[in-house]
Design goal:
It contains seven helices and four strands; from the N terminus they run H-H-E-H-E-H-E-E-H-H-H. With 244 residues, the protein is an alpha+beta fold.
Length: 244
């Protein structure tokens, strides 16, 4: 039986440990590369704008001794009615507090709200009334008007899954690539500013041309005169005749 000297055995053990450690390090680097490669380089793919249905709501506070709407509250209700006709995807839900100290003023206010909605063009089937019991009696329970609409959303922003500074763990920094949160605020602001979310998916059709103006321009073109629009009152706004 051949036996190895103790020096050779210890050397073999150290070599084996080093190989195992290198394998673990390489495995970790490979895992980091896979995780980093899964992050899209384009901020539009990293923070896409999604189209979903959201709720818009307002609250109407009613005191104990006064029924009806104030001028500001009346404008809020009119705004809800106008917006619902333009972008609503469901009925206007009205949550009304019941069995509260302001129950009588609430009833008077509800009649005015329903009258405003009807006058604005909201049909009766487009309004759904639901009584509710306030959980905390210490606070004044409001009337809440809610409707759903299609909205564009992006985010959430402010996510930092990795250090943006130079480090051995952050391979994207050495590759001079965008950090993860880059472009999120831009996408979120664009989604909030768009008037019609469908504009992000397809262009709007052209509106019909103004026929009287087109006829006038074509008649001038047929006669060979200038088709530019002249405004006789425009010269009165000039401060002087310098430059003529």
């Amino acid at each position: 039986m051949i036996t190895r000297p103790p020096q050779l055995r210890s050397r073999a053990i150290r070599l084996g440990g080093a190989l195992v450690g290198m394998a673990l390090v390489l495995g970790g680097c490979q895992h980091d590369e896979v995780a980093t490669a899964s992050i899209p380089d384009d901020y539009r793919q990293r923070h896409p704008i999604a189209i979903e249905e959201q709720n818009r709501s307002i609250v109407v506070f009613v005191g104990h001794a006064r029924g009806g709407l104030t001028a500001a509250q009346r404008a809020d209700v009119m705004g809800v009615a106008s917006a619902w006709l333009h972008e609503g995807t469901g009925a206007v839900r009205i949550d009304v507090p019941s069995h509260t100290p302001n129950a009588r003023p609430v009833a008077d206010t509800m009649r005015e709200i329903q009258a405003i909605l009807a006058a604005a063009g909201v049909p009766p089937r487009g309004v759904s009334v639901h009584p509710y019991q306030p959980e905390d009696k210490r606070f004044l329970p409001p009337i809440r008007l809610t409707y759903s609409k299609i909205a564009a959303v992006a985010g959430p922003c402010g996510l930092w899954p990795e250090d943006i500074g130079p480090s051995m763990k952050n391979k994207r920094w050495f590759e001079n690539k965008d950090y993860y949160n880059y472009g999120c605020a831009y996408q979120r602001n664009l989604a909030a500013m768009v008037d019609n979310p469908s504009d992000l998916e397809q262009p709007r059709p052209e509106t019909p041309s103004y026929t009287p103006r087109r006829i006038t321009a074509l008649e001038k073109y047929r006669k060979g005169t200038s088709t530019a629009t002249t405004y006789p009152e425009a010269d009165k706004a000039k401060l002087s005749d310098t430059g003529r």
